[in-house]
Batch of 2 targets.
Target 1
Amino acid sequence: MRGFDRPTLALCACAAAVYILVLLATVTGLLNPYWQRVLDQALIMGIGALGLNLIYGFAGQFSIGHAAFYGIGAYTAGLTSKLLPVAGIPTFLLALVAGTAAAALVAFLIGLPVLRLKSDYLGIATLGFGIMVKVALDNSNRLIPEMGGATGMTGVPQTANFGWIFLFAFLAILVCRNFVFSGVGRACMAIREDEIAADTMGINTTRYKLIAFTLGCALAGLAGGLYAHRYPFLHPSIFDFLASFDFLIIVVLGGLGSLTGTIVTALGWAFILEGLRVVLGSSFVDWRGVIYAVILILVILLRRQGLFGNREAGLLVPAFYKGGKHAAAGG
Amino acid sequence: MPLLEVKGLSKSFRGLVAVRDFNLTLEDGEIVGLIGPNGAGKTTVFNLITGHFPPTAGEVVFRGRRLTGLRPHQVARAGIARTFQNIRLFKENTVLDNVRAACHTSIRYGVLDALLRTPRFRAEEERVTEQALGLLELVGLHDRAWDRAASLPYGDQRRLEMARALALVPTLLLLDEPAAGMNPAEVRQLVELIRKVKERFSLTVLVIEHQMGLVMNLCERVVVMDFGEVIAAGKPAEIRRDPRVLTAYLGKGAVA
Amino acid sequence: MDWNYFAGQVINGLQLGLVYALIALGYTMVYGIVKLINFAHGDVFMVGAFIGYFGFVHWGLPWPLAVLVSMAVCALLGVTIERVAYRPLRYAPRIVALISAIGVSFFLEYFCSLSFVFGADYRIVPRPMEDVVWRLGSVSVTNVQVLIMVVVMAMLVLLQWLVYRTRIGAAMRTVSYDHDTARLMGVDVDRTISITFAIGSALAAVGGILYSIAYPQIDTFMGVIPGLKAFTAAVLGGIGLIPGAVLGALIMGQVEVMTAAYISSQMRDAVAFAILILVLLVRPSGILGRTEPEKV
């Protein structure tokens, strides 16, 4: 009864189709393990980036410490799995819950004081927090030796495979869609557009900024937890401020306020980065960073609103929002 | 019990007195005008009532309840809605969503309901959408419901702001220069709209306005401010002839 | 409490803070005039250090000349970056220019690390002069520290004169208030902005060279963290305000050195940023910043 109107059913069907396609590609060898990993990474980044889009694209809160929550989720989930005596699916799921919850809790506590700050200052504060988390992770072995500190953490059972990652990516998309296309989402967007007017129109801006921030960071935590169970080596440098920039780049290039944009750009970003490695070959691999930078500058110069602007693929738009709401051309 | 009582309201910004000892009483169902030269402090009075910033002194009592010191969203929930002098729409949102955003105060579902798409969520969404569409129809913007708010012409934007304010289901409506930039024909339409809306929703209205046509036609009572203080109050016809008011608007030498 | 050690650390903190100040000034001036966080600024600092190094070591220039050459190159670089990557986006939403700045930052770092440019290896910068240590009572000061202090103070005085006593400075201040008004008053906005970038970049070049004298190991990613800290310092002091940038930088340098000396070297970044966040919570617009209430 709940939740299954036509657009949602269509979305589920589409997801199932994509899943089957990828499975076929894997089985027939079209998608080799190397590119499988890239796909998984893309989806994981996508989950995290969706979270940032909620915070920044929809609620307008300029947070550039997102990778901190990605890291908190990864380490919490990884540690949980490592320390629990029994490996397997239940442990995995529990670890994910732990990672997501940890990220959400920290986000809530940090958000309370920090979300009062205005745009640029909020950015600095979140950036600073991100750096503090990274330093904490670097020194984590002093508190909990298993966390490895600056040498990194290993030994997390690699329970996450494409199936799980895809499932959680799909759930993340659903959650974000439901959030955005609801009164809660409208409140957040009102805050983004004009915080004073939103306040005057009865919206408790503090509450909704906090909700968006917590949920967005929780998604980062979930992404981190999945990462920990898919890639055998966790190191604090994976979660430094440059990683926060990665999320920011994905969200902005995809289009702030477009869930479709985030997903598409996360995939494109991961595949282009890896593709460059292949295309350039070993002799020119140094040029990878240069070309990435040039692509970044060119894309933002030529399409400043991002690939999808703030439009959404028709597939993602639910009832009560149809009728004039533009569908992105070509999906 | 009067609907709104403002007593001794004062506001200073770092030594600059914007409003001094402002008093006002509004009874149910009145339409009162607040006029005065630019910089007189009229919008500041609105901001103080809606809680945008706290007063330096004085208090605001609404339906017997002290509103002083409450945050704007709490004031909105108490039943006071306003429009802004410089239109503050949610520009990138659709026209419909601008109104639906203000329906927020009456929404009876929480975040979890939204995320899980419970039946309660669906029912409320339907109700809210109906309400919003109805308001848009009232102000004549029904067929532009799905357009981007920023794409509306100026006059329509003002009407959207009014529809949005009405979505709060207020008891008191504060209008800040609703007729700014309008020609006489549009002002007449606006007066009709305000009357219609007031009757339909049993509102009390306090309106800041420079266009005397609107003030004279619409308001039963007028309060005049200058330099942060009330300098005159009474019926429109009396105010028009009051020498203090004329001095305020036209300068000292103008009153022969 | 070892006061000699403490005094020595204070001087170290001053040294670091003054170098940060040079970088922070570039950030704050650019932000003041185009409201952009120029993330590539730290990399201009890097280029400055490298050009100074090449000038002195490979091209045989005397140090003062190497510094001037570096300043000129960086000024040109800054102007070019503005022209190519920022000007087209000047009136777009600010995040867009920020992404472009991040792109430029990456570009400079990776391009310069290519073998035919600066190369990926780090270089050691030889000190241009013999180490001399002076003693003031029981505190020792090196000539490097004195050099840094003198040079930065001189630059600050110059900048102060430029901004408040010249026409170009008046133009910069006007443009920082409002572009359209400045245009209506006859100010060439584009040229003023270019000049601002040039000055900021030149200052960063000097900062890069001074930094490399004090901490002689340079590589193409050396500008990332100092740039971040300098930017943070500028915000801490009140972004857009020149005195704010200096104040914030001095505080930042002092906090960093003291934390490394008395708490832990690894924690110094965390403590510095923690202090920043605390300051922002109490003074949301930075120490010298003024919160302008938004007109409703």
Target 2
Amino acid sequence: MPVVRFGNPAALDAGQPLAGEQVTTAHLPESYSDTQLFNAVTDPQGVWRAHSDASAPAWIESDDLHLAQQLSEHYACPIGRPEES
Amino acid sequence: MAKVNVGQDKQARVLAGTGTIAGTSGTATSTTATSLTNTGASWTTNAWAGRYIFAANRVGVVVSNTGTAATIDLWRDPATPTGAAGSTPGGTSTYIIFGEAPVLYMALTANSSATVATDTTLTGEITTASGGLIRQAAAYAHTTSATTYTLTGSYTANGSDSLPVTIAKIGTFDTLTGATGILLHETLLSATATLSASGDALTVTQTVTM
């Protein structure tokens, strides 16, 4: 099951804002085509819009490197969470 | 979103009942791609519906059962639980039925009638063989500290679907097999979606409050 984690700077919980940057984790079905995987995340009715009021994640990481690359380009955000300082 | 009555019961069993409600185990006398039989069993009809069944490194969800046979949705490889069916366990495999299967399959319907708490099926569920709009696994997502999670279905109509079709409502279930399983939620879409041609896509997200 491809797993994608998003740095979420404006997280929503059932439409209500959550304080602070959160991490949203999505487990995507193995049965999905590449197009379905991408749509499930990026569609206006998809995962990201349901979980965030931000236009893009702060960062993305995934065990599916192709999907991570696609999402990174779509959202113009980096792959990999920032190092803790 | 409307959580139906049987869904309330299911959710409670998933969250707390899984570790306390008795299961069963034994040795099969035969198996198929969608069943396991133990001719020596004397199970209560449908006592195991909605439960996980484990046999020979495969996992299925019991759709229904008779006194001696369990019908399952498919045998999963646990490493790819939402992927294609794995090989069928050997006909004399040992098995365990234990634990409540989660609700992560989403189904579509053109039926636009109001949701009713006593519903147990999704009226008019699309079950077209090989169609792109049939029941399928949904993406599960959760945000740290949130009181909700989401299930997202991503569908693409294909040449087997009866088109055009206007999708009005979705349901979430615990099995992959269409028109079976335990219904947790049924939800009218905020706006209906018409799919007219092969290749048309639809994404639906169901937010679930825990």
